[in-house]
Amino acid sequence: MVTVVAGVNDLIRPRFDAAEVAGHLEAMFASLTAAGARVATLTFPDVGKIAPIARPLRSRVFQLNDRIRVAAARHGVVVAETASHAVSTDPRLWSADRLHASPLGHERIAAAVAHALGLPGSDDGWTLPLHPPVDPAGWRILGAELRWAGTFLGPWLVRRLLGRSSGDGRTAKRPALLPVRPTG
Predict the structure, then answer these.
(1) Handedness of CA 126, 127, 131, 133 (dihedral sign)
(2) Distance CA 55, CA 89 (A)
(3) Which of 39, 49, 60, 149 sits CB 3.0–4.6 Å from 153 for a disulfide?
(4) Where is pLDDT greater, at 175 or 105?
């Protein structure tokens, strides 16, 4: 069993090419299914509903999702259709950077994939909305947007202007491939 979830970082690049990104995904799907793996993926939610400043990227998300569905169908890859459910854009499912899922978001994604795979005990409960949040006052929303821009957007823009990546200077947790051994 292999999950392939990739392409969101590519969406935010100035020279995003949906066909190229989908081509990489399709190559992964083809290689993994040819090796006998059961593969699952998912569609991405409307980023403009998660981070209003990202609204210009919405069409890119929709293009990528369409291409994911086509490539997955060609290779028998199971698709968890998270994009079509309003809960996927609930801010509580996203980390402070609005690019990665929160722990609750990961829980919902896992439930969506389990449901798409038809695993015993899974159901569509992951699609249900969370309890309504208390609506903050407008000035609190503005403050949150400004904090996000200063903490995440600003540094990202500076890295792009300098030609750097957030991964520069980092090393892998596991730089060498080693066998997996059971614990306990």
Answers:
(1) positive
(2) 13
(3) 149
(4) 105
